[in-house]
Amino acid sequence: MTEVELTSGDFTEENEPFSLFGAWLKDATAAEINDPNAVAVATVDEKGLPNVRMVLLKDYDERGFVFYTNFESQKGRELLACQKAAMVFHWKSLRRQVRLRGEVEIVTDQEADEYYATRPRGSRIGAWASKQSRPLEGRFALEKAVAEYTARYAVGNIPRPPHWSGFRIKPVSIEFWHDRPFRLHDRVEFRRETPEGDWAKVRMYP
Predict the structure, then answer these.
(1) Which fold has domain 11-117+167-204?
(2) Which CA distances in Å does 27 have to 23, 33, 89, 186, 199?
(3) DSSP state of 11
(4) What is the torsional sign of CA 114, 119, 122, 128?
(5) What's the rounded mean pLDDT across residues 108-113?
(6) In sequence order, what are the residues at sequence separation of 6 or more whose Cβ sits closer than 8 angstroms to the Cβ of residue 48?
(7) How far is residue 146's CA from residue 127's CA, in Å, rounded to a whole number?
(8) pTM as predicted
(9) Sequence ranges of the domains in the chain
(10) Known catalytic residues?
(11) pLDDT classification of 2: cutoffs 50, 70, 90
(12) Given pLDDT bands bounded at 50, 70 and 90, which one contains residue 1?
């Protein structure tokens, strides 16, 4: 078991999900070895088949949960088409999980530009060089593209590609799960009818 002193106490008494999520993320940041902000994002394709992959949460507040990607990637195309998604965080060292789902919106250009500017230079080059989710004939083709964009932006600012930005999931449900002995886990779900509505809290059978 983790030796981290947990900050959130009896989470089942909380009446608002975002401050609770912040407390759990703080605990995870202290306990997890790698990427406490790693989260699985689920979408559906044009045939209704689900897809899921890991991304990194880059921001959150009462408006929702933000990550960044190439809009021409598979997840980018699916999010733009469906405008709905789900997320799940799993912190094994803490025996905790958070699930959420809701509508999706694109972050503002200012938000995307500000985050893009914080990325390492190589990552900004990679956003230009990678045709994400499309067939790659060989590693050399990717390395060639990286070299070309490195030469193009050898000095000065590297602009954000027009096809690269962020999505915000605006949750209508957020469920908190904590492992308990004999699989009698604690589960609390916060629900609302719209992303602007008031939260209702429901305690769930495990």
Answers:
(1) Pnp Oxidase; Chain A (2.30.110)
(2) 6, 12, 13, 17, 24
(3) G
(4) negative
(5) 98
(6) none
(7) 9
(8) 0.91
(9) 11-117+167-204
(10) 183
(11) very low
(12) very low
